[in-house]
Amino acid sequence: MARDRLVPIIVASPLFLQNLDSSVMATALPSIAESLNVPPLHLNLAITSYLLSLAVFLPISGWLADRFGAKRVFCLAIGFFSLGSALCGAANSLPELVLFRVLQGLGGAMMVPVGRLILLRSVPQSQMVSAMVWFTVPPVIGRMMGPLFGGFIVTLTSWRWIFFVNIPFGLLAVLLAQSFIEDTEGTTAPVPFDIRGFLLLAFGLCTLLGALETAGKALAPIWVSCLIGGLGLLALFLYYLHGRSQKHPIIDLSILRFRTFRTNILGGTPLRIAIGASPFLLPLMLQLGFGLSPLASGLLTVATAIGGLGTRVVMKRAIHRFGFRNLLLGATVLTSLFYISYSQFSPSTPHLLMFGTMMIGGLFNSMCMVALGALGFSEIPEPSMSHATALSSMAQQLSISFGVVLGAALVSAASWWHGGDAAHLQAADFSPAFVVVGMLTMLSIYSFVQLHPKEGAGLH
User: Fold this and answer.
1) Which candidate, 37, 139, 210, places its Cα nearest to that of 369?
2) Contact at 8 Å (CB) between 274 and 113?
3) Taking the model in full, what pTM does it have?
4) What is the pLDDT of residues 2-43, one digit of tens each?
5) Alpha-carbon distance 361 to 364, whole Å?
6) Which residues pair with 421 in a beta bridge?
7) In which element (H, E) is residue 315 found?
8) From CA 121, how far away is CA 143, in angstroms rounded?
9) Which end of the chain is more exposed for a tag (fewer CB within 10 A), N or C?
């Protein structure tokens, strides 16, 4: 295979691992909940703890890559992620699972942005769309395999194997990276580590997401959640002031002055929130609301990944014909409508209709993500690439984490409204959540309409 295809696939292998891990776990949530004797919705702690760990430690990924070499950090991170997976498979309680997911997130926090950094430094801008299309193949395969893997494993054996399966894939990714990836160390001079900035970001992100978690599950009075969230926002504002006065901040927020990168962050956030909520909601709706088995649920939800895989066939042609701006606007509107259409699913809806709807929705969603990935870094200068990849990955994981919390909160609220509780969910409890998620994605249009019609013309 040509190197311009092989490198994007290798550096996207961490996304394969993450998507496999998250989609497998989403399918297996009811079985894990039964095994650990906890309500199913409480297991979003195991998802958000991993995403929270990513958000906290993502800021140091760029500094580590510049200091020790991107290839070295990339391989070590994959190894650490695989070790965390093995520990998750051995967990015997929800607190243990949450703790090991945090440890797993330490590896995930470094391997994804550093992999993207390697790609951006290895591929010319003129080939970036093709590279980004190939970059999406491993994560799409991960999402496609995940529901099937999860359903197959939970149906035929223990849920613990959903974590153990990450280990051989992680080893393969390290071997491929060692063989085909050139290191990029020495591209920038080492700078001092901004420990004050790191602590402010870590505290701010932890408390902000902690407030969302407690409010979503009503684990604390609303005033306590608001107080915790306020402290988080204050810490993030203090980091903003701190970063402006530092020569080498841990994350240089001045890169948001580039319009295309700002669009990637701000415009992509509502879409990424939906990406976090949907894979959490769909398996629960199909299994708890519709009464399907984990395997049947997995065979249906794999449709979104198959649709995403189809992006490789149509993406370059679509960008050539419509341009980035028009493509993002059209695909976002269609993505929103398809999310809303999921609210019309019921136990009597033909499975083929549900499969086709989710497949087409996955195609348009993936088109948005590929376009944002290629366009967002087109203006970033080489010395700022590590900051851009870290900030982009941090925003992505925060959005996904918020999506999981939002999905759980919406379903809990609907269940309460219908006179039920979070431990006994009905099919009707999920419909309002998909309507809200679909409407939320429309907010991305505000950022996309500000792009120039010829934006990104040099990328295709």
Assistant:
1) 139
2) no
3) 0.80
4) 556 677 778 877 777 777 777 677 677 778 888 888 877 677
5) 5
6) 424
7) helix 311-341
8) 26
9) N
